[in-house]
Amino acid sequence: MDGHRTIGAMRFDLPSPDATTQPFWDACRDGKLMFQRCGTCGLAFYYPRPFCKRCWSDDVAWEVASGRGRIYTFSVIHHNDLPPFNERVPYVAAMVELAEGPRVMTNIVDCDIDALRCDQSVEVAFREISDDPPCTIAVFRPIDPATVR
Ligand SMILES: [Zn+2]
User: Fold this and answer.
1) 88 CA distance to ligand 1 centroid (A)?
2) Cα–Cα distance between 34 and 97 in angstroms, integer?
3) What is the pLDDT of residues 113-146, one digit of tens each?
4) 110 torsion bin: left (phi>0), alpha (psi -120 to 50), beta (else)
5) Three-state SS at 9
6) Any idea what the Cα angle at residue 24 is, between residues 23 and 27, rounded to 5°?
7) How many whole angstroms from 22 Cα to the centroid of ligand 1?
8) 135: CA distance to ligand 1 center in Å?
9) Which residue ranges of the chain lie beneath pLDDT 50?
């Protein structure tokens, strides 16, 4: 009535892009997963930062990830009160190690939850989770056909 948002309309899953992270979110909308590499020491890293997390050099450049990786660790979430996560349970919160090295906090989708295992091979997929503001996130799904539903 006066613009106040109700608890039911609140979103706790949307990012707040800034000058450092905007290129990452733009790439997601284009179906590309980006990470950064340090031009001084060569470290590949994620999440986006304006400097290298190892040597603090600000000589960092974007690279497009292959989209392949493996599940480093994961947890099946059965209870979450925050919208919109409460509508998604059960879901899989995971850390995926990209083929290029960086580890990414993400969700595993299109899978048989009971069949998931650490070290399992996965590939990136993209989900549009909001129109306004526009937001597309990178998620992962198992490559092994036996675990794909
Ligand atoms: Zn470095």
Assistant:
1) 38
2) 13
3) 999 999 999 999 999 999 888 999 999 999 975 5
4) left
5) helix
6) 85
7) 21
8) 30
9) 1-3
User: Tokens 């590939």 sit at which residue?
Assistant: 123
pTM, to two decimals:
0.87
Give Cβ neighbours of residue 114 (< 8 Å, ≥ 6 apart): none
* Cα(130) to centroid(ligand 1), Å: 34
Question: β-pairing, 68-77 with 34-38?
Answer: unpaired
d(C-alpha 143, C-alpha 111), whole Å: 10
Q: How far, in Å, CA of 132 to CA of 149, rounded? A: 30
Distance 49 CA to ligand 1 centre (A): 12
Give Cβ neighbours of residue 14 (< 8 Å, ≥ 6 apart). 129, 130, 133, 135
